[in-house]
Amino acid sequence: MPTPRIRTVLLALTLVAVPTASVAHAAAEPPAASSAAGTTVAAATGLDDPAKKDIAMQIVSSAENSSLDWKAQYGYIEDIGDGRGYTAGIIGFCSGTGDMLDLVELYTQRKPGNPLATYLPALRAVDGTDSHEGLDPGFTAAWKQAAKDSAFKTAQNDERDRVYFNPAVNRGKQDGLGTLGQFAYYDAIVMHGDGGDSTSFSNIRKRALAEAKSPAQGGNQTTYLHAFLDARVWAMKQEEAHEDTSRVDTAQRVFLNKGNLNLDPPLDWKVYGDSFHIG
């Protein structure tokens, strides 16, 4: 789940990112197309390839929801006691960190009068806190009702891409990382956000770069990724709610140790003691 973040920093990061398609659009795109001259136009490479993106969503869901069925999580909502208020949806949008507010504002802009629209004043008031004031007792039921609406599902997909997926993939490509490295960035920004605190994604990356050069700087990809995962583990241990580092130790590190830089199936990993497999 994301940590508190500075929304203006996120906006600045996403403004420089090259947008990729949302899940709904990406799934409809062919892997490659032929031009009139008979040459082949390259498909998306890396984590933004539709098949790899789905794998990424399954792996994150294994940690966030103990399930590979990420598409069943649009209606998920609970307070997990981590100081961020309600955590909900496919990526763990939080009432206390601003991303849930952004999501409901987008949904309401697209579909006024939706079940969550009346809670916008309360979401603005509790932003930055773990308070439920103005949200209880009806907010969780309203969220689950909204999750039946395809427009709300699309809004969740779009905000996931704008705030987390696109920035992570683009930063990973700029650093010369392959699919696994891009996923390591994505999982980090999902949990830690990209605010100004020492455990934010950007500062985890800076910590890694102090230990190893990125491939874009002429470094070895495997060496750099070990440094990044070490920095990620350090960041997780700074917070009690994230001190279990198995989503790195028995998942991402397993793929890296096997040399699976392209995140190719079959994939086997464990998170919080539970075993998962993608064939």
Automatic annotation (TrEMBL):
Q: Which Gene3D superfamilies match?
A: Chitosanase, subunit A, domain 1 (1.20.141.10), Chitosanase, subunit A, domain 2 (3.30.386.10)
Q: What is its main location?
A: secreted
Arranged from A to Z, the UniProt key words for this protein are:
Glycosidase, Hydrolase, Secreted, Signal
Q: Does the keyword Secreted apply?
A: yes
The function of this protein is: Aids in the defense against invading fungal pathogens by degrading their cell wall chitosan.
Question: Family per UniProt?
Answer: Belongs to the glycosyl hydrolase 46 family.
Q: What name has this protein been given in UniProt?
A: Chitosanase
Q: Which organism is it from?
A: Streptomyces scopuliridis RB72
Upper classification of the organism: Bacteria, Bacillati, Actinomycetota, Actinomycetes, Kitasatosporales
